[in-house]
């Protein structure tokens, strides 16, 4: 409940940025958010906040509202007309009628929902049920596809379930820590501070960083493997080759708890350190060293005195056309050495977004179902249909993020509902996404912010609440569920995401009564807690069972980890400590996929390998952080990082405006000479959209950002696109 106007108070909530999931105390005065500090009692951050989290209140200033927020529903019935402000009833009636008409004419798979890891678990649950239960399509996917889906697939193909086995305390127990494809110093700053502290306390702890760039994270490493982009699988296979050759694996663990080892051992036979060194651009002796450190946990340990190794990894492994093989390649190493299920050991995927994990829990993706069930499993579909009270859940896999927009561009998906995300900036191949938004007959955008790239395409704009205004739950990287609480009133006519979806669903139910299966409504919720209770029940007997964790328990005891089954008094901190895995035979499986090069190798026309990533003080497309001037102190403007030798070879100089072109588009931005990238490589931060990189066109649509260059090729298991590598060329911009 909101306190009376004028009262000073603090509200306990969670940071809406990264997957560290820090607890925050939001200060309010007179109903306004006036400050923020770290929650000293939250186990993810113990009172600390990074620069982004510490500036949250500055992004919530009421005076910013007219500039950055969507405040009332808007509608246009003709594509080229401006939208006009309308009442909620008119907007939702219109959308329900258009959806019903399109579904009646073209079938349920002619509509699609594209949602977000920024949403709360309750929002996610309702959207998933709306698509799969009421509409009868699995075309519901999320921007977490672009973020975490390879981690999901990697865990599932090896350990049998999408469950990170570790927790943040493991940092304090690890003897060897591997950071692969993760610039945690910038992307997960509070977790990184804990790593720094552990290293300062125990300098003998070995830190290995695997990253094509020499990042701030790499500065802490005892050994930085600056591999060529996309070659991680070759490296992991070569590390296993060394472990096998030098008898560093744990044969007892392999025999008792795994299957498929012989095939993997055969696979890595040819990947010697020398062969991998050639593919990865590394020294063979460094590959041998990291293999030994990883297997034994410490340089002087033996297989009898093995010390724990923890690996933490993120988008460098995930955002790849071989993302699943990269994730599984690293998990293979943990299984081969028994480096899992004990303090300080295990494969720990760092989630990018604040609630990518919650979205996975409710099955809010085109190939998943509630509570880690699989769409491809008929028994799982029947369980979910029974839970929801519908006749069936369709079997056909829905279209994943890139596929959904491709289908819209091809005219197959005719109505797109986009909630809490900015795909015209953040998905690869922006030109394709924009074609999709132009081709679709109906584009609904449900947003808190008037994003420059996507909102101009909206036929209907539905204003949503955001951090500080809404209530629900999120789950962080270590499976810890935290409450999100409102500290101030919703601005204008903004409504909560779950509530908008329910209001729409009830209207659609009146137009599509067949899917109701005789029920009055599938959406009988008056509060987020009611949604949470249904989600909770869906987890009964599953690996993430939270039937013992009520809303009241979360209120009373604070953030809790799953699983938390009925009868438990605390969640489970570490998984697989008994060597039992959620597979048919209880064994983890080795994954023996061969190394595959990047989808778009560099060539004479496009000779530079471009990778993209985050900066320390910005978040995603800057819809929130972009309104806080002090967050630009760290990096005031976008640029392309290039090695000085690459600039010199082309007669270009530091600071000069360059045109960067791929096969899909081109952008203009200044060069930054730096040896943090290797010759032949380039880096551009993902945050700046086109407001900066070329302004808006006559229709008010922002021009291309960095994802105008990137590639929409996807991993065959996770369907995650290869945002970490595309081939580009750079030249002087020669602007008029
Ligand atoms: Fe927020 Fe992540 Fe920073 Fe914590 S580390 S304050 S969750 S952005």
TrEMBL record:
Residue intervals passing through the bilayer: none
GO CC terms: membrane; oxidoreductase complex
Cofactor(s), names only, from the UniProt record: [4Fe-4S] cluster; Mo-bis(molybdopterin guanine dinucleotide)
Enzyme Commission number, as recorded: 1.7.99.4
4Fe-4S Mo/W bis-MGD-type domain: residues covered: 8-64
A single BP term in Gene Ontology: nitrate assimilation
Keywords per UniProt: 4Fe-4S, Iron, Iron-sulfur, Metal-binding, Molybdenum, Nitrate assimilation, Oxidoreductase
GO MF annotation list: 4 iron, 4 sulfur cluster binding; metal ion binding; molybdopterin cofactor binding; oxidoreductase activity
Enzyme class: oxidoreductase
Family to which the UniProt record says this protein belongs: Belongs to the prokaryotic molybdopterin-containing oxidoreductase family. NasA/NapA/NarB subfamily.
Protein name: Nitrate reductase
Shown residues in whole-protein numbering: 12 to 747 of 951
């Amino acid at each position: 409940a909101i306190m009376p106007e004028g009262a000073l108070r603090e509200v306990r909530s969670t940071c809406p940025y990264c997957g560290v999931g820090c607890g925050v105390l939001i200060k309010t005065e007179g109903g306004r958010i006036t400050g923020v500090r770290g929650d000293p009692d939250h186990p993810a951050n113990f009172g600390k906040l990074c620069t982004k989290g510490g500036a949250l209140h500055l992004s919530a200033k009421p005076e910013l509202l007219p500039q950055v927020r969507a405040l009332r529903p808007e509608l246009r019935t003709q594509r080229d007309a401006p939208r006009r402000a309308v009442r909620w009833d008119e907007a939702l009636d219109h959308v329900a009628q258009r959806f019903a008409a399109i579904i009646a004419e073209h079938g349920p798979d002619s509509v699609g929902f594209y949602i977000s890891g920024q949403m709360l678990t309750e929002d996610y649950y309702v959207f998933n049920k709306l698509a799969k239960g009421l509409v009868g399509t699995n075309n519901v996917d999320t921007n977490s596809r672009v973020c975490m889906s390879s981690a999901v697939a990697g865990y599932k193909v090896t350990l049998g379930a999408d469950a990170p086995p570790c927790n943040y305390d493991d940092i304090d127990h690890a003897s060897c820590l591997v950071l692969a494809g993760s610039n945690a110093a910038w992307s997960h700053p509070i977790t990184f501070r804990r790593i720094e502290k552990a290293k300062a306390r125990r300098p003998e702890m070995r830190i290995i960083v695997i990253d094509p760039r020499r990042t701030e994270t790499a500065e802490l490493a005892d050994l930085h493997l600056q591999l060529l982009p996309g070659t991680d699988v070759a490296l992991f296979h070569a590390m296993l080759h060394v472990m096998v050759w030098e008898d560093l694996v744990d044969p007892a663990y392999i025999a008792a708890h795994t299957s498929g080892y012989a095939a993997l051992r055969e696979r890595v036979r040819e990947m010697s350190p020398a062969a991998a060194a050639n593919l990865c651009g590394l020294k063979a002796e460094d590959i041998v060293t990291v293999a030994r450190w990883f297997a034994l946990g410490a340089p002087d340990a033996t297989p009898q005195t093995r010390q724990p190794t923890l690996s933490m990894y993120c988008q460098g492994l995930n955002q790849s056309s071989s993302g699943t093989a990269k994730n599984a390649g690293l998990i293979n190493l943990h299984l081969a050495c028994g480096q899992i299920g004990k303090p300080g050991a295990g494969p720990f995927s760092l989630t990018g977004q604040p609630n990518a994990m919650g979205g996975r829990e409710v099955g809010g993706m085109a190939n998943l179902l509630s509570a880690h069930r699989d769409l491809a499993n008929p028994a799982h579909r029947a369980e979910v249909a029974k839970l929801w009270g519908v006749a069936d859940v369709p079997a056909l896999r829905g279209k994943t993020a890139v596929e959904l927009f491709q289908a819209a561009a091809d005219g197959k998906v005719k109505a797109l509902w986009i909630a809490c995300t900015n795909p015209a900036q953040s998905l690869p191949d922006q030109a394709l996404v924009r074609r999709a938004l132009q081709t679709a007959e109906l584009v609904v955008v449900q947003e808190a912010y008037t994003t420059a790239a996507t909102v101009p395409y909206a036929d209907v704009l539905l204003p949503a609440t955001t951090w500080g205004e809404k209530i629900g739950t999120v789950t962080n990287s270590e499976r810890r569920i935290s409450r999100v609480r409102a500290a101030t009133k919703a601005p204008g006519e903004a409504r909560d995401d779950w509530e908008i979806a329910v209001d729409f669903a009830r209207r659609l139910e009146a137009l599509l009564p067949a899917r109701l299966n005789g029920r009055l409504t599938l959406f009988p919720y008056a509060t987020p807690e009611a949604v949470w209770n249904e989600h909770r029940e869906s987890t009964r007997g599953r690996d993430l069972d939270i039937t013992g964790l009520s809303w009241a328990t979360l209120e009373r005891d604070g953030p809790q980890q799953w699983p938390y089954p009925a009868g438990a008094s605390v969640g489970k901190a570490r998984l697989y400590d008994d060597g039992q895995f959620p597979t048919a035979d209880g064994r983890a499986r080795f994954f023996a996929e061969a190394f595959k090069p990047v989808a778009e190798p560099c060539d004479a026309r496009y000779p530079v390998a471009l990778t993209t990533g985050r900066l320390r003080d910005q978040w995603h497309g800057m819809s929130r952080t972009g309104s806080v001037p002090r967050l630009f102190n760290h990096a005031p403007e976008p640029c392309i990082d290039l090695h000085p030798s690459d600039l010199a070879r082309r007669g270009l100089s530091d600071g000069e405006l360059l045109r960067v072109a791929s096969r899909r588009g081109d952008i203009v931005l200044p060069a930054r000479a730096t040896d943090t990238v290797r010759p032949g490589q380039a880096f551009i931060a993902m945050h700046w959209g086109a407001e900066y990189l070329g302004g808006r066109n006559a229709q008010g649509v922002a021009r291309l950002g960095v994802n105008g260059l990137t590639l929409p090729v996807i991993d065959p298991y996770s369907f995650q696109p290869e945002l970490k590598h595309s081939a580009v060329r750079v030249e002087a911009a020669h602007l008029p």
